[in-house]
Amino acid sequence: MRPMTWLFIVAASVSVHARADDFHICHDVNELVYRGAITKESAEALIRHLRAGARRLTITSGGGDAAAGQKIGAAVAELGVHVTVARHCLSACANYVFLAGRTKTLLRDAVVGFHGGLVRTIGKQEKDPSRLSELNRQMELLYQADDDLFRKLGISQELLLRSYKLTAPTKKPVHLLVKVDGSTYFETEQEQLDEALAAEAITKAFASKKHVSVELTAKNASPDTFYFPSQATLRGFGVKGIVSYPYPKSADELRQLGLATVEGIKLVGDL
After folding, report:
1. Of 4-8, 80-84, 198-202, where does mean pLDDT reach its minimum?
2. How many Cα neighbours within 13 Å face the side chain of 81?
3. What pLDDT score does 73 carry?
């Protein structure tokens, strides 16, 4: 059997403001301070500290990998961790870490930003399912983990759908990158993926009998526009445990808050 690696990145859960190699953890007895991207490596480190006894997490994160975020969220919910947002908690951080907290606190001028979630789009239109069957299987695992976590939290996933509708970009390109033995073999970005062209490239890559990886990125979410919902909206979707949630009093205050957050993101709110 030819070796292969399937990767699927859902941009609705990945923020351009998060550097994959940049995260910092400070653990002081029961308190844990985390700053940086959500990645497989950072999630493993964070969960180790939580299981070592930390029950209060103060976080600043631009988001990152959906699967890693799901694992952190599951651990936060299981252990009853109290979550505080120091500066910003965006994308996967908002979807999984903030929502999973036993209690949720925003410090002054802190922002929680949503811009969608896992969207069932890529892979469903493939005319030859066998070509992407493993990719589809991996995505189904992500979807199921999302469903399970939100069900456990008692939160409606309609919150993520609302955030997506409010922040979705006009253009939603799909990026395909095929690598053979770690080197780029084929790469394209299109608003509508040419399935025949993609299938041909993937088939030829596999024919090389070398290690093949396929990265398919659906850029469904805006990289710099986030929905900062009001406390009333969150409660309406089933979010509980909100202790402190300072919220802008005007559209101008919301705009200024966005400009002061992570290189000036755009915030959409309930004003």
Report:
1. 4-8
2. 34
3. 98
